[in-house]
C-alpha cells in the first residue's frame, strides 16, 4: 500500500458517516459545505517527483470505487517541472480510470517575470514544453498566480506574453479545459509579495477570456493585515 495505512479509508469513512463534522475543527462548517469535493495529490512537495505516483493513483482509484464514490475527482496539482517526462505522463494516465483534473502552474509569459515569481531556476520554455507534452494526452487546467512584487503587478506586456504561451500550447495540441487566474490569498514568506487589486485581476481575466478560446475563472486575493 502506497498511502499511510488506512489513512484515506479512515477519513472517507468519517466524512460519509458524518462523524468528521463533530470534530471541534469542523463542527462550525455550514451544512451546505459539508461534503467531500475531491482527493488531491498536493502539499508542500511536488507530487510528480514521487517515483510511485502511478501506484498511488491506482490505489486511491480503487479506494474511491470501493467506497462507491465513483463521481469523486482525483486531482493532481503540479508546478510542471516534471510534467513532460514519459514516466510521469504514464503515471498520470492512471487518472483516466475515473473523474480527474490536473492543475498545472503557468505564472508568467516571459523568463524575466518567471524568475521573479518562481525562483526555481528552471527555464520557462521547459515548463511550457512539459505542459504541451502532458496536454497532448491528458486534459489540463492551467493555474496562474499573479501577485504584486515590490508593489508592482505584471505589466500589460507580460500578460500579452502569457497569452502567447497559452496560444502556443493550444496550437501544439494541448487539451486545456480551464484557466484559473488568481492572486495571493495568504501571507507569503517574502514580504515583497503582495495582493493584486481586484480591478487589475478583473482586467487580466477579461483579456484572457477575449483572446484565448478556453474557459477562464478568476479568484480574488485576501489581505492578511
Topology:
Layout: H1 7-17, E1 38-41, H2 53-66, E2 73-78, H3 86-93, E3 100-105, H4 111-117, H5 124-135, E4 139-145, E5 148-149, H6 156-171, E6 175-182, E7 193-194, H7 198-211, E8 216-219
Parallel strand pairs: 1-2, 2-3, 3-4, 4-6, 6-8
Antiparallel strand pairs: 5-7
Helix pairs in contact: 2-3
Q: Tell me the domain tally.
A: 1
Q: How many E-type strands?
A: 8
| Strand order, largest beta sheet | 1-2-3-4-6-8
In round numbers, the mean pLDDT is 92
Structural class: alpha/beta
- In CATH, the homologous superfamily goes by the name pyruvate-formate lyase- activating enzyme
State the CATH topology: pyruvate-formate lyase- activating enzyme
Q: What is the class in the CATH system?
A: Alpha Beta
Q: Treating each run of at least 4 consecutive H or I residues as one helix, how many helices?
A: 7
What spatial form do the alpha-carbon principal axes imply? globular
Low-confidence stretches: none
Instruction: Provide the gyration radius in Å.
Output: 19 Å
Strand content: 15-25%
Q: What is the H-and-E element order? A: HEHEHEHHEEHEEHE
How can the largest sheet be summarized? 6 strands, parallel
- What gap, in angstroms, lies between the N and C termini? 43 Å
**Helix content, binned percent:** 25-40%
Name of the CATH architecture? Alpha-Beta Horseshoe
